[in-house]
Amino acid sequence: MDDFLKKFFPKVYIRKNEAKENNYCKFDDQKLQLFTSSLYLAAVVCSFIASKCCKRFGRKRTMQMASVFFFVGVILNAAAEDLAMLIIGRLCLGVGVGFGNQAVPLFISEIAPARYRGGLNVCFQLLITVGILIASVVNYFTSQIHPHGWRYSLGGAGLPAIFLFIGSFIIVETPTSSIERGKKDEGLSALRRIRGVDTVEKEYEELVRATEVSNRVQRPFRNLMKKNSRPQLICGTILQVFQQFTGINVIMFYAPVLFQTMGMKGGESLLSAVITNAINSACTFVAVFGVDKFGRKFLLIEAAVQMLVAETIIGGILLEHLKATNTIPKSYAYVVIFLICFFVAGFAWSWGPLGWLIPSEIFPLETRTAGFFFAVSMNMICTFIIGQVFLSMLCAMKAGTFFFFGAWVAVMGLFVVFLLPETKGIPIDEMNERVWKKHWYWKRYFDEDGRVKDIEMH
Fold first, then answer.
1. Rg (the chain; Cα; Å)
2. Which residues lie across from 457 on neighbouring strands?
3. Can you tell me where the transmembrane regions are (predicted)?
4. Residue of 404, 386, 422, 416 whose CA lies nearest to 308
5. Can you spell out the DSSP letters for 27-90?
C-alpha cells in the first residue's frame, strides 16, 4: 500500500515511482525486509520455550499463550506511529507464530486416528492458506481507503486471534499430553470424547505404555543428537529447509512487489496476489483428500517437477523480456502470472502441508517435542533468511533468482526419491519398525531386532 510505504518506508515509495529506477531494485531496502522477516526471527527464538511449554503445560495451554501474543502484536501494529513500534508488533506476532506452530501440528497428530492423520494435518495448512487469501482480499479493499487503510488491514488480524483464544478453551487436551503430565484419568476421558466411544481401553493402554517410555527418557534434546535419532532429525529438518527454498515465500511475501516489478500498477498487483492466494487455498484441498490416498512421496515428487518447470520458464521470460527500466509486455506478464499460479498449485498440494505433516509424525514420543522444535526452528530460520535477503537478492541476481530456487527444487526432488520414506497410514508408535528399519539407507541406524540404539533412560 502506498500510504503504508509513504509513512514507514519513504525512500522505497520515492524509488517505486521513479521511471528511471531499476525494475529489480525499486524495493531493495533493509528496513522493509526487516519488517517482513522480524516476525520469523522472534518465532525462532521462542520455539525452544514453546517446546518446553508444550511438554510442561500441554498443547492446549500453549495455544492459549499464542493467541495472547497474536492479539498484542495486532494492537501494536494497527496503532503504530513509527517503524520501531511496527517492528515490536511484528516481534510479538512472531512469538505467537512460534508457540502456535509448535502446538497445533502436534495437537492434530495426537488426536487423529492413523488413517485420518494426514488429511487432518493438511487441514492445518489449508486454513493457513485460507487466512492468507482473506488477508490478501482485505489488503486489496483497504488499499483504497486513504490514508489509514493499512491500519484496518493490520488490525483485522485480531479477529483470528480472538477465535484461537476462545477455541483453545473449547477443545480438549490431547490424551498423550494429559498422560505424560500424570493426568491419566483426564487422558482416558479425552480419548473417549475424541473417539466418540467408551471402548478405547486398548488404544489408551498403548498410549500409556508409550508415554511411560517417553517419560523415562532423561534428556530428549541430547537423545535427539544421538546416531539413532539421526534419520528422523535429518528428514524432519531438511524438509523445512526445502519447503522455504522452493521460493514459495518469495511469492507469498512479495507477490505485489513482483507484479509491480513487471510494470503492474498497485491495485493490479494486489488483485493478482489475491488470485495466486486463491489458487493456493483451492489446491490445498487436493492434499486434504490425496495425502492418505496417493501417499506423501508421490505428491512431493510430482510437485517438485511441476515447480521446477514453472520457475525455469519464469526465469527465462524475465531474463529475455524484463530489463532494468522497461516493463514486460502484457502477454508475457499474463504468462508469468499463470506460471506463478501453476507453481503455487504444486506447492499447495505437496510441500506446503506435507512440510508440516511429515515432521509431526516421524518422531517417536520420547523425542517428539524436541524433534518438532528443531523442525519448527529450522522453518523459521529459513523463512527469516528468505524474508531478509530476497529484495536484495532480486536486485543483484534479477531473473537468476528464479533459477536459484529452481536448482533447490531439483535437489529436494532427488532427496525425496532416494531418502524420504513413505509414512502413509503408519501409526506413529510403529514408525521405527515399519518405516525406518526397512528403509534401504536409514535401517543402518537400528539394531537387527528393530530396537532404537542408545536412548538414555532413567
1. 23
2. 217
3. 32-50, 62-80, 86-108, 120-141, 153-172, 233-257, 269-291, 298-319, 331-358, 370-390, 402-421
4. 404
5. T--HHHHHHHHHHHHHHHHHHHHHHHHHHHH-HHHHHHHHHHHHHHHHHHHHT--SHHHHHHHH
User: Phi and psi dihedrals of 25, rounded to 5?
Assistant: -115, 5
User: Per DSSP, what are the bridge partners of residue 452?
Assistant: 446
Query: What cell was used for 265?
Result: 500498477
- The total domain count for the chain is 1
Q: What is the pTM of this model?
A: 0.79
Helix H segments across 363-435?
Answer: 368-397, 400-419, 431
Task: Tell me the CATH number at 292.
Answer: 1.20.1250.20
Q: What is the pLDDT of residues 93-120, one digit of tens each?
A: 999 998 998 898 889 888 888 777 777 8
Q: Which of 430, 294, 455, 414 is nearest to 362 (CA)?
A: 430
CA 351 from chain center: how many Å? Answer: 9
256 cis-preceded (ω within 30 degrees of 0):
no
Q: Which domain holds residue 400?
A: 25-445
Tell whether 161 is covered by a domain: yes
Span 369-418, pLDDT tens digits:
788 888 878 888 998 898 888 888 888 998 899 999 999 999 999 999 99
Q: Is the pLDDT of residue 266 over 70?
A: no
Name the one residue in this structure whose C-alpha cell is 536484495.
392
State the average pLDDT for the chain. 86
pLDDT of residue 21: 65
pLDDT at 135 over 50: yes
